[in-house]
Design brief:
- With 784 residues, this protein is an alpha+beta fold.
- The chain contains 19 helices and 31 strands.
- β30 and β31 form a beta hairpin.
- α11 packs parallel to α12 and α12 crosses α13.
Amino acid sequence: MTGPGAGEQQVGTPFSPGAMATAVLDQRGDVIGWDAAAQELYGYLADDVLGKPARRFFVPVDGRPLLDPDVPVESWGEKRALRKRGGGVVEVVLYVLRLGSGEARPATAAWGILSVAAERMDRWVTDQAMLAGLSTQSPISLTVIGSDGRVKWVNPAMQDRFGLYRDDWFGARARDILPEGEIISPDFRGRSFESVIDQVYRTGEPVIDLHFRSPLPGDAVHLHVWSCSYFRLQDAAGHHLGVCESAFDITERYEAQQRLELLSRSSSIGTTLDGIRTCEEFVAVAVPDLTDAAWVDLAEPVLTGEEPGPWGVSKPLRRVTRRDTTGDKGAPTEDLPPDDRQLVLPLAAGEMRLGVVTLLRTAARGPFNDADRALATELVAHTAVCIDNGRRYAQEHATALLFQRNLLPQELPELTAVETAHHYVPSKGPTGVGGDWYDVITLSGARVGLVVGDVVGHGLHAAVTMGRLRTTVRALAALDLAPDELLSRVDDLVGQARIGSDPKEANGMDPAVGARCLYLVYDAVHGRCAVASAGHLPPVLVAPGGPATPLDIPVGLPLGIGGMPFESAEFEIAESSLLALFTDGLVTGAQHDPDAGVAELCRTLTESSGLRPAGIRGRIIASGLPADARDDAALLLVRVHALAEDDMASWRIAPDPAKVAEARAATNAQLAHWGLDAVGFVVELIVSELVTNAIRYGAPPVDLRLLRDKDRTLICEVSDGRETSPHLRRARPDEEGGRGLFLVAQLADQWGTRYTREGKTIWAEVPIGTDAGGLDAFGDVLGV
């Protein structure tokens, strides 16, 4: 038994051979003919009915006779319900007709009864109505392409849509119908109609919803989009007849969908805060789906983060990006006057004029309609917001960076005791502003304070807190505090919320809490260092000819954490040794492994230890440090130099006022040895006053020390065993004393007091080679 395969439609009509049941009656109404179809439909075999009256087998359910031999009546297509063998009922469509005499029929034949199952007939009638509707009334364009690839048939919708008569289509090839069109479905893009039709014809697999874009014949301006489907046609015997194409216009739906997709892709505009990158992202979205070409001109101030000013204020524009995919369709020109194919839209943020966007379509594409203009306006508005955000960020970022850089030392002091180089790298994160800092502080007695620190977090809060911490450390360093004591005082201030910005803006916590700081003091006279750390990474030391090694020092808790005491470590340091102080941003990479970063830093320092600090800095930068661009980083390189023995002189002074004259004489002799007679008078007065005060108000031992700092300053130091601090005051005219420290303050460039384990030291610095200033000051004091 054979029949249609699964999924195939049965071919044939109710009137096809074998589909219609046939019975032949003679003049008396007896059955003389009964075919297999009648046997299947009614259930009676031919032997059961032949030669017997037909009324026994054609029994209507409604009782109305089917045939009356005395009243012969023909009927055509009457629907009746008849009894089947066994009592069942079958609905049929009957065709009763009188048979004429002829050679093909027996002479006794009088009537023919043709029966078709009513259900099958209804389906066929419906199919015919549907086919007739598709052929004559459907708005869907139908085309049948034969096996030779030429048009065999079209319905009226094709004629109405394309304005061509049927005769114009017959024999034409598919490509000839819409020669300017193109397939735009992603899976078939670039293929021809002929290849798609040939594929369907060969494989029998239909192609559904293929999108095709083209102008209409006679209208090259407006582009239409069609949804096309293809399926193979075959006859009842399974012979391939060709391919049928159904197509309907989906231009409005397609363009609406494209606009929605464009809007959804607008999220790709403004992925960064770079205004030029935002413009590039805009034209990438707009071309080619919305327009054939697009370019963006921005006002010059926008590119620098400034406010461009309101509309009406002329500002020069600069072309920042352009995208053009017109190819051979005719490149757009900027001189083309605005029309339906050109849109010039303002890039505006409120009242500010950021720039102008120009969109252009070529003649091969339809002009912008209202929906296109609305979409373009929305995309441009979104782009303008993103550009303005980037502009504001650039402005605020530049301000924050300027603020932070102003908080850092602009220039490090040039000192005999140390040669320095420094480097600061802001982070490349969202803010670009952090709280890392470094400092070099001049201390008394040819000593230098070195500081490096890091505030937790980023942004303006961190930068402000860094500035306040740096100021606090400098102020405490001026008191000549030991490193552990200095950090303890800073820790106390942080714990009392006196260092950071407004705690209300930091959720009630001082932003300085958790900050890390390292303070190191280098003494060029004794060649020693003292250092303390509040949670900060130890410095790296490179001794002459030796490898770079991190210092083994005690590391306390970060500032404001626990109130635990800090410990100082002291060590001797050789002449020309190199110290590297740095924040964790320099050595902590993306894997958060500071040990690896410190190892890399030590390797670079060892290899370049013979260079000057500036050259070593260049090597470190070239090595790839800082390791993590998400954090800011600070680096301070210090080459230490000891004070030469010939630049120092000291004496122990007996606690006797008569010894003051000996101190002056020893001072003058040393100044003469150094060739510093020009400042002899001023220095002699300072030494006389300081030694006198130490003998009178201090306690033994009393020591005098002179330090020559190359060609810069001469340092006078007088130490005694009492910690009582002297007071500077202005004596009244009738008083004979009380002018000693006042004279020192007027004659010296700087002066101060520092405390030691043995007592205190009062020091004063006098510029070398500029005695005029000292003499003028002395004259002012005497009133002459």
